Amino acid sequence: MKLLFEKRKASSVPALILVPFVSFLVSLVLTALLLEIFGANPFKTFAAMAVGAFGSSHGFAETLVKAIPLMMTGLGVAIAFKLKFWNIGAEGQLTMGGVAAAGVALFMERFLPGRSLLVGALLGGLLAGALWAGVPALLKTSLKVDETLVTLMMNYIAILYSEFLYYGPWRDPKGYGFPGSRMFSADAWLPRIMGRAHIGIWIAVALAIILWIVLKRTRWGFELQVIGASQRAARYQGIAVERNIVLAVMLSGALCGLAGAFEVTGISHRLQQGLSIGYGYTAIIVAWMSQLNPLAVPFVAIALAALAVGGDQVQMVMGLPAAMGVVMQGLILFPMLAGSLFTEYRLSVVRPESKASCPDPVEE
Amino acid sequence: MNDTVVPKVEMRNISKSFPGVVANDCVDLKLRKGDVLALLGENGAGKSTLMNVLCGLYRPDRGEIYIDGKYAEIHSPRDAQKYGIGMVHQNFKLVDSMNVLENIILGLRDEPFVPDLKRVRSRLVDLASQYHLDVDPSASIWQLSVGEQQRVEILKLLYRNAEILILDEPTAVLTPQESHELNRVVHVMKQEGKSAIFITHKMEEVMEFSDHVMVLRKGKVVDETSTAETTPKELARMMVGREVLFQIEKKPMAPGKVALELSHIEALGDRGLPALKDISFRLHAGEILGIAGVAGNGQRELAEVVTGLRRSSKGKLQIDGKDMTNKSPLEIIRRGVAHIPQDRVSVGAAGDLSVASNLAMKQYRSRPLAAGIFLLQNKILDFARTLIEKFRISTPSPKTQVKFLSGGNIQKTILAREIGAARTLMIAVYPSRGLDVGATETVRRQLVSQRDAGLGVLFFSEDLDELLQISDRVAVLFEGKMMGVFDTNTVNIDHIGMLMAGMDREAGA
Amino acid sequence: MDFLTSVLTITIRAGTSLTIATIGEILTERSGILNLGVEGIMLMGALSAFATVFYTHSIALGFLVAIGIGGLLALLHAFLTTTMRANQVVSGLSITLFGTGFSSFLGQRLGPASNNFRLVGLRAERIAPLAPDWAEKIPILGAFLNQDIMTYAVYLLIPIAWFFLYKTRPGLWLRSVGEDPQTADAMGIDVIKTRYFYTIIGGMLIALGGAHLSLSYTPGWSENITGGRGWIVIALVIFSMWNPARAVWGALLFGGINAVQFRLQASGTSIPASFLNMLPYAGTIIVLVVMTWWEALSKRVGAPAALGTSYMREDK
Q1: Which of B372, B418, C104, C133 lies at a 20 to 30 A Cα distance from B43?
Q2: Is the ipTM of this complex over 0.90?
């Protein structure tokens, strides 16, 4: 009798729900251990984090502020991942979106009067993100260049380019040494609803729903699902695989670019350092934990944003490093990664086969 | 037969099953020292499984192996190596980017920390000249021709002092000239006292290379005899068998216009070698044309050319009167062509998607499943339920992911989808391979009803009985060439068997 | 010391950590495992080495701890990707995320009370330089001798790693696992063990690369001490075509850009710096494209063919 890992015969719904849940619990335990080692009471810490993130309107607003870009980039990354296109470039696409939106806001006032300036900025962000993602997509489909590193490298190029801009030609002469562009005119400001949180939240949630509808209820979404499941099967049914990959990846980039546009028009109102604090990378966690389901993305994004904001609060209240939140984010993924094995395989016990026997050889 | 000499290899009562199929059923094998034994049989007969057991890659469910009369525990390739057993597989176990020397010593634990390549090279050169296996030791594997790669594989075994060499379909990848050279190598090996078993489905090979031949069919031994005492015709009959399964009602043929026409089609295979050579034939509406032949002789490539998945380098393809040479798969689908592919798992179905999605994959572009850009989910589910019932697909629900279905049910899903969409042509490539009796019957009935409904059906199968029962005409494909088209009412099954094995002359009366 | 020599000196200094980490990642990727956790492991290596040296005043101990930490993180990656069959990209990124956050966390908690428990701004022993006085006076070649002992160790590491990979039996087995795990398995090589082993060794070397930053190059600890070097290492692995001997060129190139940037910043313009800093990343993309295209043409000089794929032997 022996124990075997064997592939599951049917998708197990209990496993799909239990695994993320148990993983989250494991990560809580690990974090609690960590806190104990450093002399902080885990329960008090977790409580402080929860209060920090949700307990006040200020805290909740800040949670939303961090959640919005996570939602947008999470959606973008989820789409790309669904086609098995490893878009690690959300950070760069977001940055270029911010750059484009800033460019429109700073220089297109003459052509876009009133609120149309804001709309133009957002569209610019969409477009820039789409194009920035289009490059690695084309390199993959036409030249088969691996997208992991290309998207990653383009992150750095984007960040450096935006640095160049706000240190250089776009620098605010009245900036008092603080690097950044001048402020946009009020027409380009994204309206806020609570504290620093802006209407981008509604757009993000709406996009999550729309994206889900597209994936599950439209012909194009169906084609994308087939491509993601089996490129060969898609080709065999006449689906244009390469063209759809490029389109979907550009959509992915557009969503990330829009996130960047939200950041500059809604939060900072200028192009400056700190446009993104790693949203593009955290987006990968968001997408993964949402199991690539657009409807789950807003929830996961808020949860992770709460961890980050809670971490900030904890720094002030309990003297723990702000990096606490980031550590927790990392700690969540490991159990989840390990646990993903159990959604595909299960432990089973193998009993030895019963022995029948071969017929005796016929004598000649 | 009685022998007083202890056989070099004896396998007794070997049985091995995989989920859903019995690969070896109480098989006995004897190999005498210095002998060359041919294992003959169609695909799926169990030859490779038996040899994988001998060389340690598989563990048999039952049975024992004796080497030189002594019981042998063979649980891994390394154990087999200790007994002097080595195998040259059909997919060579060679690392393309490395050179010959490196591949020869790969995995050898006796080699020192810093291998002395000069010593390896000189021993290799000696072996090479001894056995007529010339190859450049410094060449990288990817630079070598397939024939040369095979020589490296054999040298690998000889370097490891193999006494028993197993060759899996060795001439499948060789030119006739290279085959003769291989024969020379085998003769030298015999002189050196080595023994060999080779797996094949080609009669020519059996007659030319072997001293004894054992025929397997559906996992069981049919017969074993010395090669000198048999004829290709007899071997063909043993290989192919004469079981007749079901009688199927077939209306007499009333063929209509030409649904599919190929004229002098040529196409390259995946490796860049010619896979189809000068193929020409006509398929009429309301007719089933069966294509006989062992898998690997161009069937997949032919189906791919007809469905637009592979370019043809020469020739013309006409579907329903229109020129469709090298058009896209979508255009061909729009002409009403359906295709049941050979690779059901990776091409015919998308495992992670649901049964309903897989069923909808051909007709999702238009009504009733779609309205504008939207897919109508409830219509898709209804559509799926209808097909599930009609084809008796066994699945917990239409939303179950296809990867969880059994092979037979996946095939039924593919069948259901394709049949629903076929209007002009149906291309079915080994549709009943690996299916149980019930599913097989469904498949065959469906193909016949398609034909009765006026479609042209191009039907590839390795099972001659099935082909002859269902088809109106049958053609044989061997090494990319059409070996003849026959009316099933008048054809001689032995003749077909021989054409399938490459013998295009009447051998014996 | 003339300009060229001084640039070369800084370049070699900068390239040391890059080279060790690159060789480590080369070994890992040669086994078929892609480890995107380099940035996180480098940070943890830098932090743990610095903290250890600060308290124990022993460089050797600092190295040991860094090696231990790097090995542990890499073990986690190996476990997740090989045994648990998790996605290699996500696993590596998680390690980077965790390493970045955790090193920052520890950097604010492991310091002495006198410094608010923070490690930033502290000084500790540095890796001893081994530079005879006359080295400064020799142009060009003097730069090679004006370094610390770790750099000298790297001078040795490069040919040793090259020799190991291409001339020894275990090196041959390692290469086969990354190129064609099916064949390696059929030839009796334990693919799983190989992947674990070289991923862990790779992690150790990467952490040592981080240690060089905090104990020599910078020195000290700050949260962004690596400045994205971890990602450059991944690019350098491709740039060196998975050959340890070539790793040094890439490290020199990227190290050199760093050094030149120092000099330029000294003259006040920051504009060229941004674009100059883009060079490594843009260069990587170009190298990738060219190499992919070349590999498609000649089936040569590519990544280990099985890089990034998980391996499962057929059920028997």
Answers
A1: B418
A2: no
Q: Is residue A195 part of a domain?
A: yes
Record the tokens describing residue B124, joined without a space.
């290799």
The closest CB to that of C188, out of B59, B95, B107, belongs to B107
C-alpha B426 chain-centroid distance: 22
pLDDT score of C90: 83
A150, A152, A329 ranked by CB distance to C97: nearest: A329
Query: Strand B473-478 and strand B481-487: pairing?
Result: antiparallel
Total count of domains within chain A: 1
List alpha helices for B232-352, DSSP H. 232-240, 299-306, 329-334
Is-contact C15 C254, C-beta < 8 A? Answer: yes
Packing angle, helices A279-289 and A90-107, rounded to 10: 130
Which residues from C are below 8 Å from A325, CB to CB?
101
Query: How does residue C315 score in pLDDT terms, banded at 50, 70 and 90?
Result: very low
| Residue C84: pLDDT band with limits 50, 70, 90 | confident
Give the Cα separation of B135 and B126 in Å (integer): 11
Q: What is the pLDDT of residue A57?
A: 83
pLDDT at A144 (0 to 100): 84
Rounded CA-CA distance B286/B258 in Å is: 10
Q: In this structure, what token pair is assigned to residue B264?
A: 């002098």
Instruction: Indicate the pLDDT class of residue B246, thresholds 50, 70 and 90.
Output: very low
The CATH number of C3-315 is: 1.10.3470
Q: Which domains does chain B have, with CATH numbers?
A: 9-240 (3.40.50.300), 256-336+424-509 (3.40.50.300), 349-421 (no CATH)
Least CB-CB distance to A321: which of C89, C96, C108? C108
- Mean pLDDT confidence for B183-200: 90
Q: Is A353 a domain residue?
A: no
Beta bridge partners of A349: A3
Task: Kindly tell me if the per-residue pLDDT of A2 is higher than 60.
Answer: no
Q: Which residues of A touch B374 (CB under 8 A)?
A: 217-219
pLDDT digits (tens, 9 = 90+) for B258-313: 889 999 999 998 877 888 999 999 999 989 999 988 777 888 899 999 999 899 99
Question: Is residue A351 within 8 angstroms of chain B, CB to CB?
Answer: no
pLDDT tens-digit readout, A182-220: 888 888 888 888 888 899 999 999 999 999 999 999 999
C-beta atoms of A222 and B329 within 8 A: no
Which pLDDT value is given to residue C174? Answer: 96
Is residue A330 in some structural domain?
no
H or E element that contains B2: none
Instruction: Determine the structural domain holding residue A133 and report its residue range.
Output: 63-297
Q: Considering the entire predicted model, what is its pTM?
A: 0.81
The answer as to whether A15 is a domain residue is: no
**Residue ranges of the alpha helices (H) in A109-240?**
116-143, 147-167, 200-217, 219-229, 231-236
User: Is A333 within 8 Å of C90 when comparing Cβ atoms?
Assistant: yes
Q: Where are the domains of chain C?
A: 3-315
CA dist A277 and A294 (Å) reads 22
CB contact residues (below 8 A), chain B span 137-176, against chain C? 142
Strands (E), chain A: 2-7, 192-194, 197-198, 345-350
Which amino acid, residue B162? A
pLDDT tens-place string over residues C231-250: 889 878 877 889 999 888 87
| Phi-psi category of residue C56: left, alpha or beta, with phi > 0 → left and psi -120 to 50 → alpha | alpha
